[in-house]
């Protein structure tokens, strides 16, 4: 499949993909999800968090905010502790409550810190 055909299939721009592939830009989580959906693979695989391409889709896809905050509560981690431990601004965490997604590098950091998959955090899978 050509780059143009892939981008059309994934619903992303060719220039955006080429910028990511050349290292000039970081993919947004939305782009990661679109590419993972188009390739039928896990976001963790695309982000280098796993060697496994496969993933089990969520029964009911969820938003990031509906995954991160309950997970923090379950794990007994305050937003303040998360910010301190991960070097995040509390204002960034507050934006997540309103539906904003973290940067891809932050998503990788969160998945590692919380010992869960990026696919889970993004609402693509029910498996942590």
TrEMBL record:
InterPro entries: Cro/C1-type_HTH (IPR001387), Lambda_DNA-bd_dom_sf (IPR010982)
Residue stretches making up the HTH cro/C1-type domain: 1-46, 75-121
Listed Gene3D superfamilies: lambda repressor-like DNA-binding domains
Keywords: DNA-binding
Superkingdom to which the source organism belongs: Bacteria
GO molecular function terms noted in the UniProt entry: DNA binding
Region forming the signal peptide: none
The name this protein goes by in its record: Helix-turn-helix transcriptional regulator
Entries under Pfam families matching the protein: HTH_3 (PF01381)
């Amino acid at each position: 499949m050509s780059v143009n055909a892939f981008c059309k299939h994934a619903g992303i721009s060719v220039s955006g993909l080429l910028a990511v592939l050349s290292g000039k830009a970081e993919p947004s989580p939305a782009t990661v999800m679109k590419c993972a959906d188009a390739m039928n693979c896990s976001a963790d695989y695309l982000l280098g968090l796993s060697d496994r391409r496969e993933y089990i889709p969520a029964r009911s896809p969820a938003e990031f905010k509906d995954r991160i905050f309950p997970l923090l509560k379950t794990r007994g981690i305050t937003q303040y502790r998360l910010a301190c431990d991960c070097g995040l601004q509390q204002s960034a965490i507050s934006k997540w409550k309103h539906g904003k997604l973290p940067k891809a590098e932050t998503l990788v950091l969160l998945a590692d810190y919380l010992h869960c998959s990026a696919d889970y955090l993004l609402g693509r899978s029910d498996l942590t």
